[in-house]
Each structure stands twice: as structure tokens, then as C-alpha cells.
Amino acid sequence: MSTDFAAYIAGLVKIFNANGIAAEEKPLQYGKQLVLTSGGAKATLSVYNGKKGLKLVWSGKNAAFTDKCKALIAEEAADGADYCLLKNLPEFKGVWAGSDESGKGDFFGPLVVAAVICDEKSAAQLFSLGVKDCKVVSDKDVLKLREAIEQTAVSSAVLALTPKMYNYRYAQIKAAGQNLNHLLSSGHAAALCAALAKYPACNYALVDRFAVHNNIRGMVNAKFPHVNVVQMPKAEADIAVAAASVLARAEFLRIMADLEAQAGMHLPKGGGNAATDCAKLLANKLGKEALGNFVKLHFANYKRI
Fold first, then answer.
1. Torsion angle of alpha carbons 113, 206, 118, 157, nearest 10°?
2. Whole-model pTM?
3. Are β-strands 155-161 and 41-50 bridged in parallel, bridged antiparallel, or unpaired?
4. Which of 74, 98, 111, 252 has the smallest C-beta neighbourhood within 10 Å, fewest atoms?
5. What is the dihedral of CA 84, 89, 93, 96, to 10 degrees?
6. pLDDT tens, 110-151?
């Protein structure tokens, strides 16, 4: 075993141990196996050191724990990786997807999920254009950046649930004993799959983690088994995720403008008192039964109308 490979394995063990995960080393032909355990959870990471470089093979029945272990490596790789958080991961080929959503916390308006695939050239161009997480970009600039992202990225996809369709889908998942995280998971998976269908050579996808337990990886791998799905907090620092957040926000704003035209009044963003008060005015104007075309009915705001 080379000194560099031994150092790499030692680095992995250090990362896992620092996060409360025991890592037992076992020898493999042309590599090392790490048996990772924490509480009752277990995952196995086989690391091969071949002629084409490092290859990581994951296995384990606990998908959430396995995803957590993957994310720890991704977070460590992000240090010094500029705007690509997956840059130093094994088998990274310089092409990756990112996904993000908009409208999750807004009483009025749609839920939008977008995915963007970048290569190193397009990522550098997007960075130079000033693409950042939509939360630190004005809505005016978001609308300007949308066309540039769509023209520059390797591939992109934007999927939106208008309030009427959102309420229909939410009622379905609630009847099935599920919650909002299941709806978000299916949205992220669908957007990623739509982008990957246009560029299936991409083998990595990064999602801004919104819940510990979800099945985004499983849904993506059902159609694209070669894609490594990594979920980590603050993933919007990655240019692909940031670009996805801008596309999602731009579509959210577009649909909100349409809804305002239908309502004949300004519709506040967010989920505060201003949104509740506006919904009351709209209910008086159009009837409470019409609110399902404008708002997310499971929000607490609706109960106060």
C-alpha cells in the first residue's frame, strides 16, 4: 500500500472518528475496507487504489446513515474547493448536478424545484457571471441570471407545482401517511432525473440537505444507478446548487406574478401575518373556496382565516 493511499485512508478514519463514527479497517486486494458503525447503524466503504485512481464502493442497509457518511467526506473535500464542493471526491469527472427548491416556506405561491448540471468550464462562467445562492441575490438579478444560467449550464430542469396542484399532491401524501419532506424528496429526484436525462454522463449530484431521512438517492438511482447522490448542509455554496436555487426562485417569481394578475392584488411572500391578512382580503373578494388556487392550504395561516 502506497504512502499516499495509506494517508488517504488515515484521513478518512480521522473524519469519521471526529464525527462519532467508528471505522474498523480491513484489508482488501488492491485496497482497504472501512466498516463504519454508530449506535446500531452500519455501513461499509470499500476503497480501491487502481490504475485509474481511487474508487469508492458503498454498501449498507441504512441509507440515511450511508448518506451521512458520504456527506462527511464531501464536506471535508469542500475545504479549499472554491465553488465546487465535490471537486476532490474519488471518480469525480468534472461534471456534476445540483438541485434546490423555492417556495417551501411561502404561504402564497408554488413550490418549485430546479436542477442544474455544470462542467468545469460552465461552472467557471457561472461564477464569473455572479451566480450565487438566491437568498443573497436580489429578485431583479435573479430574473436576469435565469437566461444566462439556462444558456451556460450543461443541462437544467425546472419543475413547479402551482398552489392548486401542490394542494392536490399534499393531500395525496398525507393520505398515504407521509409529510412535506416526501413531497420535497420526489421533487428533487424528479428535477435531477430530468436534467440527467439530457446529460446522462454526469455521475455526481449534490442536494442541499433539508432532512436526514429521505429517498432522493433511491429515486435517482432507480433511473440512473451510476449517479452518486450526496446530500449536505449549506450546499448552496456549490455553483451548481446555487444556479439551481436561482432558476427555482425565478420560476417562483414568474408564477407569483401570474397569481397576482389573477388575484388583482399584491401577494406577500413568506408565511407571516401580512400573508394571512392578504389571504383574508382575497377570501372576501373571491370566496374562501378559491384560496386553494393561491395558497398552500396546510399552512397554519389558513386556519386563521
1. -20
2. 0.75
3. unpaired
4. 74
5. -40
6. 999 999 999 999 998 898 788 888 888 889 899 999 999 999
